[in-house]
Amino acid sequence: MKYWRVFFAFVLALAVLFHPLSAEAANKRVAGKRAVVNKDFSNKTLIASEFTKLNLENSNFSNSDLRGAVFNGSTLAGANLHGADLSDGIAYLVDFKGADLSDANLTEAMMLYSTFDDVDITGADFTNAVLDGFQIKKLCAVASGVNSKTGVSTRKSLECD
Which residues form the signal peptide (predicted)? Predict the structure, then answer.
């Protein structure tokens, strides 16, 4: 992992922690230790929404606009994020086990301490995303396809080669 990515992740984390939320984002905050399993968020505009400590297992975020959204300490196991735009978002301490991230746009996303076991990342774009090194290796082992919106190959976006 390049050092500038770690620095970028640190600065981004500080900005999120100490920056006041806009009125729009404050209205989209969902937090708590509750389950929101099987919820349908598909095709929604959820820009800068916050999902903190939620069980979003098997929820559907397909084709949703999640730019700048924050998933913190949440479970997205089995979730459908096919075609979702999570660019500039944060997924910190998120369990993506079995999730569908195919054709998702994850550019510039900070995804430290998240796990990606048995995920479908066909065509996902991770350009300049910040991930743990061992997770990148795991994702490179299954990376394939080209993102339909950005035109970037998954392998290239993860810098596998």
Answer: 1-25
